[in-house]
Amino acid sequence: MKIELQNSFITDNTQEIVKNCYFLKCDFNAKFWEEAQNLGANLINLKEVKELLNINENIKIVGITGTNGKTTTAAAIYSTLLDLGKKVFLCGTRGAFANDNRIDKKSLTTPHPIKLLSYLQIATREKCEFFVMEVSSHSISQNRIEDLNFYLKIFTNLSQDHLDFHQNLASYYATKSSFFMDESLKLINKDDENIKFNYKNSYTYGIKNQATFKILAYSLKPNIDSILKFKDNEIILESPLIGEFNLYNILAAFCAVRLLTKNSDNEISKALSNFAGVKGRVEVVSEDPLIVVDFAHTPDGIEKVLNTLKNHKLIVVFGAGGDRDKTKRPLMAKICEKFAYKIIVTSDNPRSEDPKKIIDDILKGFEDPSRVLTEIDRKMAIKMAINLAKNQECVVILGKGDEEYQEINGVKYPFSDQIIVKEILENAN
Q1: Hey, what CATH topology would domain 283-428 get?
Q2: Does 136 belong to an annotated binding site?
């Protein structure tokens, strides 16, 4: 992409170079430096770009990382800060937003450096005090977050994911831990033992273990109602969200805003209670029959969602993404089998893989195939599930959340679980 200047532009793509333009020089694109120079570009580092774009270095950058919960926690922090009258930029899986206006569509969880710089330029122009972003393990490993001065770093949790990239859990955990080894302000989930971090300037939060911010008591029925202890204060934390995993997300958001602002506990709690959640995260798209759509695509994520809905008789529709960690596929099956009355295994984003082979990998994880149906066509699979829901069963559609496409052999075809559900229900009436 390009960042336009008055008489030139900055790019990170050698194919866009014209003589005397600027080429962003960073670790992420080191192999292209020489080519860019030979093509006549002026190499410019991240610090120099920030100066050229007049980026405000006093914006407080908040980075959130973990296997699950990044998107909801980031959105909750963003929503709460806005309700408190702050100016805020948010970027992550759902796209980019500035002061409640969408700036960019969905893209990578953590964008490439030049995109982040363009966002920081907008945040500066919009006079944002805070810049809240999701930080993926890929971006840490590839140093796509080079030269970002994080004011606060937040850890949500760790479980199996991305082993196609990291090869093993030890490498994945080490990558995440490396983000927390400096002396910046940190907020760590004390109930997750998989993370290592520098204790200096660290605060912790938890439900089960002693922590700086500790939940003393809570109820999850029908929604989140809890009592939080911080220092000598007890604070009521209420939320319309459901599930223990969302209690962690809400707790992390409260703690973050408490560390970022001078607002009172009650002001923060009240603002946070207005956060209604994120599209595609335990999203109820129909109440009769009850149909829930969720982004969960890891064994741990699926378990959290299905455990939250376990009081219902569950019909689960799920698949697994192609060209990604294959070892988690049978594990996802085992979790679904533990909670579901009926399971339909289908296609997710097969990418360059054969969808049938992905389904075959998933099927290896089931002990009782009698409860399992397969249907490669995701729309047909959803229709099958809805047709089966005749006796108050809850249909849970996992894996894509609020995605609006299905990626097959390099092409992104329009596809939304929510829209498909509504079409099927309308045609049935």
Answers
A1: Protein-Tyrosine Phosphatase; Chain A (3.90.190)
A2: yes
